[in-house]
Specification:
Layout: H1 2-6, H2 8-25, H3 29-55, H4 61-81, H5 87-117, H6 122-126, H7 137-144, H8 149-177, H9 191-211, H10 217-234, H11 242-264, H12 267-291, H13 295-299, H14 312-316, H15 325-333, E1 337-342, H16 344-349, H17 352-364, E2 368-373, H18 383-390, E3 398-400, H19 401-407, E4 413-417, H20 426-429, E5 448-453, E6 473-477, H21 480-493
Parallel strand pairs: 1-2, 1-4, 2-3, 4-5, 5-6
Helix pairs in contact: 2-3, 2-12, 5-7, 5-8, 5-11, 8-9, 8-10, 8-11, 9-10, 11-12, 15-21, 17-21
Length: about 500
């Protein structure tokens, strides 16, 4: 016990190293499981050391244990019950929970400091530390806890603001992903003003808190303003940009945790929060490039307004050609090169395993099969990679968007399985489109395109896809898993 207390920071450094190795392991499917276990080991070590360290000075350690048990139980049930298709929503909730936890911990600790400042025994506890007897009581309380006043006050304000924005922003993102709230951008002429007003109000209360720490009401005032700001920041962002929002909110949750680490002088929280914040921001930048979005606009919740485009009837009327599994099987019999482009529809139908079986059958016939992966296919970064890895698809067959576009014109058949916005040629040809400029997989340049969808319903961007009406495109309507199963059966029967 005494050894652990004395070696706290060393053990925290070890935990941080495990976090870094865990993130590194996540960069490749072959090492992903090991990376996950390393991250788990690092977090377990950090939790154990923190409990022992703080438990030595707190008689309420059993509350911590109870919280860990309840939280672990909720996490375990969620991991078992939540479907892969619902993973983006769960990530959004995790981000929000992290932001709320950071805000509450920082606020609770700050209130503890103010209570300590009112404690008559404070002078006795700081006696002999060489502190100026003329300093304020709350400054003494901060020094008594091993911190420095200005750092603690600023970090408390930052944690409260970022944590609150992360919480309400993540909740709204969750509601949009669940389609309990419309995924279309919610715009209003006064929305930008309201957003700016709420964040400036939160910052103003933060300044009050730093200048006058005794005004503890300022913390909850800034938190309330930031909670409103989180809603205003995500409202104008449409469903098509949700992957970027999730990544950004993930970064925010890390930054909030890092700030809270400075409040409570916890080394591992500072390190872990910095890692999450930096990684999330880098991923957000990558997502912005992949979707041709401005990082500045996403950061401040300001997305470009677009004009209403043609209706679905105007795009599709009399031009869509339906096909059947039997007809597609005949087309595939003569194909030498096939590319499968999966999207959210594959996740919904859980058809990754039957898609793998179809690819295996084609390869046995001498056909070359690859998978075209768009960076934001699905509703979160890496969604398709995870699904295909679950089906034991060789990672080397998963090709990135730019690589696919280099050879797409030589592809005989491109099977689009539930993808929509990421293959919409309007992004390339229509400057007035809601997804104008967004890099896409140019499936329309393949010799034949087979689109597997339940209907002609739009994707998350809420716009029709002219690909479905092109001369070289055929629509195979139906549930993804059922349609591909029938296709495989027809192919084998032929």
């Amino acid at each position: 016990m005494e050894f652990l207390l004395q070696s706290r920071n060393i053990l925290y450094v070890i935990a941080a190293i495990l976090f870094i190795l865990g993130i590194k392991g996540m960069t490749h499917p072959r090492t992903a499981v090991r990376g996950n276990m390393l991250g788990f080991a690092g977090m377990t070590l950090a939790i154990v050391v923190t409990i022992i360290d703080w438990g030595a000075i707190s008689p309420a350690w059993y509350w911590w244990v109870a919280g860990i048990v309840v939280g672990s139980l909720v996490g375990f049930i969620a991991a078992k019950v939540v479907q892969m298709t619902e993973m983006p929503e769960m990530v959004a909730l995790f981000n929000g929970s992290g932001g709320l936890a950071s805000m509450l911990v920082a606020g609770a600790y700050f209130h503890k400091l103010t209570n300590d400042a009112a404690d008559a025994s404070l002078l006795e506890r700081v006696a002999g530390k060489g502190l100026d007897a003329g300093m304020s009581a709350i400054d003494m309380a901060v020094y008594a806890e091993g911190g420095t006043p200005l750092q603690t006050y600023i970090a408390t304000a930052v944690s409260g603001i970022i944590g609150a924005i992360t919480f309400t922003g993540s909740v709204l993102a969750f509601l949009k992903l669940r389609e309990w709230v419309s995924g279309r951008p919610m715009t209003h002429p006064m929305l930008k003003v309201a957003n700016a007003t709420s964040i400036l109000t939160a910052i103003a209360f933060g300044v009050v808190l730093v200048v006058n720490p005794e005004a503890t009401w300022a913390f909850w005032a800034l938190a309330a303003a930031a909670l409103v700001c989180g809603v205003f920041a995500v409202m104008p962002i449409g469903g098509a940009d949700m992957p970027v929002v999730i990544s950004l909110l993930n970064s925010y949750s890390g930054l909030a945790a890092c700030a809270t680490g400075f409040v409570i002088n916890n080394t591992v929280l500072i390190t872990a929060g910095s890692l999450v914040g930096a990684a999330g921001l880098i991923l957000t930048k990558i997502m912005c490039v992949a979707m041709n979005r401005s990082l500045t606009n996403v950061l401040f919740g300001v997305m470009a307004e677009v004009e209403e485009g043609p209706s679905a009837d105007e795009v599709y009327k009399g031009k869509v050609k339906a096909t059947s599994p039997e007809e597609v099987a005949m087309i595939l019999e003569g194909a030498q090169r096939v590319c499968v482009v999966p999207g959210y529809g594959m996740a919904v139908s859980q058809s990754q395993h039957i898609v793998r079986d179809l690819a295996n059958e084609l390869e046995e016939r001498g056909c070359q099969v690859t998978y075209g992966i768009h960076p934001v296919a699905g509703r979160m970064p890496g969604h398709m990679n995870v699904l295909l890895a679950e089906a034991d698809v060789d990672y080397e067959k998963l090709h990135e968007m730019d690589d696919v576009n280099r050879y797409i014109e030589q592809v005989d058949v491109c099977i689009v399985l539930g993808a929509n916005d990421v293959v919409n040629p309007d992004a390339r040809t229509n400057p007035q489109s809601a997804i104008a400029g967004m890099p896409i997989i140019d499936v329309d340049k393949a010799h034949t395109v087979i689109v597997v969808k339940r209907s002609l319903s739009p994707g998350f961007a809420g716009i029709p896809n002219p690909l479905f009406a092109m001369d070289n495109a055929l629509m195979m309507f139906g549930d993804g898993k059922k349609a591909i199963t029938e296709l495989l059966e027809s192919l084998k029967a032929g």
